[in-house]
Amino acid sequence: MKCPGQDTQYxxxxxIFEVPCPKCGxxxxxxxxxxxxxxxxxxxxxxxxxxxxxxxxxxxxxxxCLGTLPEEAIAQREDLLKDRVAVEVKRFFKQDFKAIGHAGxxxxxxxxxxxxxxARLAVVLCAAYLLGVGKDQAQAILARLGAKPAxxxxxxxxxxxxxxxxxxxxxxxxxxxDAERIATLEDGQKENPLDKAxxxxxxxxxxxxxxxxxxxxxxxxxx
Length: 223
Description:
elongated, 4 strands, 7% strand, Hypothetical protein af1432, two-stranded antiparallel ribbon, 2 domains
């Protein structure tokens, strides 16, 4: 069965349109299902400005349907994946709201550190959410959600990392490890608050990335 969105019998007026090339201004004709087109005037290839890649973000047959996906669609797919991973983690922990909250804060802190360090956020966020479920369960969740093998490998490598091991970690693993430690220190402050000087020493000792230390100081010390 052909995807209705790509079947011309369902197309309406406006399914074929013209847009100016962003490089030279020449006219380029697009069909609504063209992911990209090359300008006949200057040879510049660009993304269809009117195409909605929403289905491509989750459909496992997107590349068969649309061909090689542009970077925008790949990024949207990975962004949607981390949201679906968050839902799966909530299902995994069920009524353990403390674990759910810890995973959510770890992911939130990992995102902030990851953006500062310009890391691959799909890896960072998925690993941060899945850190508490274990490597095997993380792999099963990602496979069920249709994640790419390379992404599964990167995320599960971090999810299976000993949080106390610093040597040999990839940047994304260090980011997730620092985010989890910030969340853990935050939990400790709620249960058994430490003096600020002691807490600052813990941050210096346990948080290894500069971006992580800056975030820890903001979250834990109010600086």
